[in-house]
Design a protein that fits this description.
disordered C terminus; single chain; Tetracycline Repressor, domain 2
């Protein structure tokens, strides 16, 4: 079960205020009760954790009636899955957009990771829901999380064309890289260091590229100062 934390931002409203006045005063949000419910769920889960989030609390925060909730969602799990899908769609859109450019593959990896880190850092509550709470929200949410990670694997598979010995790379290389990056991000979000995520860009770019490009080429592509990186000796001849 997730532990509650000191409220801030939207999470403060979800945890403390039964119906934030700012929501009621926003005509656009009043006109879209489903969006209000999804936002209220994200904010509440981010602060209270999925297990301690109730539909009643979400309805209070969104300032809507139970009948409105029933029009759009079957239950709390359905509401959470729809909120998670909305978050994922925005996140994947930001990353995939960078892979549609004419830049080189290493630069696209760099741009994609930058977009990912900036998106997560700009909305810590959404990051908490997508990177932490979804793992405790039941089998469907856990499976969705695995699907999200799998969607990023093909973006790294292009790296085999840049590898000196592509046949020597294990078939699970890209999957392992994606899983490693996800683990690092999960830990930072869990530690409430989400706003610091963009600082990891150089390290994560290096981590993503090094299996394919080798130490020195990956270091250059990541923009890491060689003076601050442990030098890896060349292989024996």
């Amino acid at each position: 079960m997730s532990q509650s934390r000191q409220p801030h931002g939207r999470a403060a409203a979800a945890a403390v205020s039964p119906a934030p006045a700012s929501d009621a005063a926003d005509p656009a949000r009043c006109a879209d009760p489903r969006a209000r419910i999804l936002d209220a769920l994200i904010a509440t889960v981010a602060y209270r954790g999925y297990d301690r989030t109730t539909i009643e609390r979400v309805l209070q925060t969104a300032d809507v009636q139970g009948a409105v909730f029933d029009e759009h969602f079957h239950d709390k799990e359905d509401c959470f899955m729809q909120a998670l899908d909305a978050l994922v769609a925005r996140l994947q859109g930001s990353v995939l957009e960078q892979f549609e450019t004419s830049k080189s593959w290493p630069e696209r990896v760099r741009r994609g990771l930058k977009a990912l880190l900036v998106a997560l850092a700009s909305d810590p509550e959404a990051a908490r829901v997508g990177m932490v709470e979804c793992l405790s929200a039941g089998p469907a949410a856990s499976e969705r999380y695995r699907e999200i990670l799998s969607a990023f694997v093909p973006l790294l598979e292009e790296g085999r064309r840049h590898a000196a010995y592509p046949d020597h790379l294990p078939p699970q290389t890209s999957e392992a890289v994606v899983g490693g990056i996800a683990s690092i991000l999960h830990r930072r979000v869990l530690e409430e260091r989400t706003p610091e995520l963009p600082k990891l860009l150089g390290d994560l770019v290096y981590f993503a590229l090094v299996p394919y490009m080798g130490h020195h080429r990956a270091m250059v592509a990541a923009g890491i100062d060689g003076a601050h990186v442990t030098q890896v000796p060349p292989p024996p001849r």
